[in-house]
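Bug #2210: token dump truncated for VapC9 PIN-like domain-containing protein?
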Amino acid sequence: MKVIIDTNGLMIPAQFNVDIFDELIRIGYDDFIVPKAVIEELEILNKKAKGTDRTAAKIAKSLSGRCRLVDITGNADDVIEELAFEMDADVLTNDIELKKKLISRGIRVVYLRQKNCLATT
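Reproduced locally. Full output below:
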């Protein structure tokens, strides 16, 4: 199954010490997708954030190399929503507003549960 990974999804390993790829495989995903819009958000965080957020952004950018890059730019949340709908893919995110929006469109969401594993809606 396909899963699109949001910016904060890629930051989970650094922030919560959870291996998102092992977890995604455990729950049935094998095609990890990252839009270029997410990479651009990570680059901005890498320049502007400080401390642990900056470290998490650097780690997230390196982890994105394990994913299939889709060359679509723009507002990351909008790109993810449209891409998920077009590709019939689920989305890994911890963004509450994006999660609500995706669920309202019938898109399945993968999220961090109890700060130690991933679960789906």
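Output looks complete on our side. The radius of gyration is 13 Å. Marking as cannot-reproduce; reopen if the truncation happens again.
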